[in-house]
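assembly run, all chains below
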Amino acid sequence: MIDLKLLRDDPERVRASQRARGDDPALVDALLAADEARRTAVSYADNLRAEQKAVSQSVRGASPEERPAVLERAKQLSTEVKEAEVAQTEADAALRVAHLAVPNVIAGAPPGGEADFVVLEHVGDVPSYDFPVRDHLDIGTLLSAIDTERGAKVSGSRFAFLTGDGALLELALINLAMAQATAAGLIPVIAPALVRPEAMEGTGFLGAHAAEVYKLENDDLYLVGTSEVPLAAYHSGEVLEKLPLRYAGYSSCFRREAGSHGKDTRGIIRVHQFEKVEMFSYVDPAAAEAEHQRLLEWEKQFLTLLELPYRVIDVAAGDLGSSAARKFDIEAWLPSQERWLELTSTSNCTDFQARRLGIRMRGEKGPQAAATLNGTLCAVGRTIAVLLEVHQQADGSVHVPKALQPFLGGRTELRPA
RNA sequence: GGUGGCGUGUCCGAGCGGCCGAAGGAGCACGCCUCGAAAGCGUGUGACGUGGCAACACGUCCGUGGGUUCAAAUCCCACCGCCACCGCCA
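ok done. output:
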């Protein structure tokens, strides 16, 4: 939810943000009107309540003669207050709906839609191979590391078994990511993958993404698509005494992939269940931009450790989630398809997400909304896919990056049996 | 899954349907005392909303949501959570 004070002071800035996103600026004016209507309703009800309270108090002190009249007046006020409160509740609800409809105010993101991203930098050279390149599923099959056929047999399409070196590689990546995060001072967390509706709603995943989310109807719980959800809800409703707070959360992630029929159907690039280590920061809003850069640096560091070439893009306003003010994606080179593939994503949500979740910090003038930021450290399945492809060798073996070797028993390559 | 108990401010903890935003502690902050500290003494110490430049005023909040009443932390109902015991179980 955006800051209503900002909205009142500078509505044009919010309208401009809407235009940059390709969203409707009229939502801003609807919100302004709802805010105004609510304040009117609150004032009216407040005044009535004050009067009712006073009259109610005087019931005790009233003499027997005047008592019936006072009680009569009190009853009448009671009815009026109830009506005023209904009106206030309705105005509150209307404001909330209008409030939720306005996404975060963008901060520095390039205008335009999905195709209008800006490439900020390239790191490493796009690899070339003097042998026919295999894709990750072929390599994974040769290594007996990935089994999508049995994944489909047991669980359906977009599921896979990781076996042998595939399973070990997954654990190694998680351990490397956690080791890096811990060395950087982040608090390691293993988070629940099942959350209550409030957590899902509070983080904004039941809005545009609702169709992507698995729900357990019998238990009123949701499977998280990212540990951003439990990590953000972790401090919901709290006033945080000392910031920054930084977490590295590991969890399984579940996505229905409802809108991606026919897309990335081969291998494990897009599956319903994958493992991920996610970074999450709570900071003073004044420090949010610097924190965003810090998260990006950690993401780059991890890919550098894996010896993967990549590029960093500044995602355009129209392609941001509703909570994000700015987002950087890192895309790694996928040799089999000769294209860039999104491996990580880091968003600065400023105080937008925190306001909805009631996450506050001690500010100059008392508690105020904190800023939250998230960033992928390692989306394991996809990273395995890219790793196998980039580091493949002519004979079907795969080079193991130096940093990963200690987590794979010192092995320097993976070979078909 | 069953039975019982409990949810009050940063924490502990009291609270007769009106005089309770809430006793009393602790903690914390500031001041006095001290060479300095501890102890002691004194003062202060929630959030949110609306109006106001501000001091401040009014309103809301005693797990959440309903209900009864002129009036609810206090009575009733539902839900959520916590604790204990039993059952089951990786």
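The mean pLDDT of chain A is 91.

Residues 26-61 of chain A form the longest helix (36 residues).

not gonna interpret more than that til we talk
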